[in-house]
Backbone:
């Protein structure tokens, strides 16, 4: 059984509900943090922050965990929308919800009738109404998207292997929507390539870990950096110096778009740091490497 850390006391109610749901889904999936990092584009350290309420997870991280645990997509998307709005309000200067004040009323006569509703009950009704509204809106958008796919599906079927079902290690089916050249420039998690991804090469530039991530189902690769700073760049480099890159916008991790790669040996991953240092892995091998370790605990001086 997982021993979860207590969530921060000042966490917004909607964010708290999302994190609690993600913890439940993580337990249902039966995956460790290391296994989550291997199956998704997000590192073990990122999942630790998401599941302990330290950082609001990106929408795609919530989506991919829902897929791994067979969660209801519409409800999960609605929970994330509410949590994202609450987090935005706090960043914009909104006040965090204060804990309820202790009740000081005299004991209630047990013969008196109970009030028709409580503050907690009204709050739950409001939350349920917002969830239903958000789920209805998401369902409408999904129906529109499905109609567009049906109209355009025939024209694109010849250029990409849409929704390809390939077997991952362990027998899990990976649903991907690109293959080889059709994956070039695409986001690995949005294309479904993160489901069977593994680390084919690993190096370290100063304190930043650089990984070459590879998907057998997609025949594509990308670069991922962990424990960087905003502005640090993850870059994938392929034949004839073809590249894609992305930088850390917030948090400490980033990953690039994909390059087609028949094998991991055709590409390498690089990092360009704001400090001026840069470095690359060697070409990928066929050995599945372990995830980067957790960072050392912060010292009092670094906590400032």
Residues:
């Amino acid at each position: 059984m997982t021993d979860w850390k207590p969530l921060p006391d000042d966490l917004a109610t909607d964010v708290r509900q999302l994190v609690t749901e993600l913890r439940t889904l993580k337990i249902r999936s039966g995956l460790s943090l290391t296994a989550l990092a291997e199956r998704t584009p997000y590192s073990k350290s990122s999942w630790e922050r998401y599941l302990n309420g330290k950082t609001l997870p990106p929408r795609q991280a919530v989506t991919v965990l829902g897929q791994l645990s067979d969660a209801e997509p519409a409800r999960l998307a609605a929970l994330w929308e509410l949590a994202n709005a609450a987090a935005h309000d706090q960043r914009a200067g909104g006040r965090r919800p204060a804990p309820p004040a202790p009740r000081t009323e005299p004991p209630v006569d047990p013969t008196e009738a109970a009030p028709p509703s409580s503050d907690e009950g009204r709050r739950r009704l409001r939350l349920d109404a917002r969830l239903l509204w958000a789920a209805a809106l998401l369902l409408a958008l999904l129906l529109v998207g499905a109609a567009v796919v049906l109209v355009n599906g025939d024209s694109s079927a010849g250029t990409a292997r849409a929704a390809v079902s390939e077997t991952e290690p362990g027998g899990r089916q990976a649903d991907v929507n690109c293959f080889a050249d059709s994956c070039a420039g695409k986001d690995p998690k949005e294309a479904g390539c993160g489901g069977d991804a593994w680390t084919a090469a690993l190096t370290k530039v100063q304190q930043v870990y650089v990984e070459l991530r590879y998907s057998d189902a997609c025949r594509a690769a990308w670069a991922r950096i962990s424990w960087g700073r905003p502005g640090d760049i993850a870059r994938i480099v392929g034949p004839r110096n073809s590249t894609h890159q992305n930088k850390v916008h917030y948090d400490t991790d980033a990953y690039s778009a994909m390059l087609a790669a028949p094998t991991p040996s055709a590409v390498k991953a690089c990092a360009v740091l704001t400090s001026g240092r840069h470095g690359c892995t060697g070409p990928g091998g066929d050995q599945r490497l372990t995830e980067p370790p957790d960072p050392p605990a912060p010292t009092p001086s670094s906590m400032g």
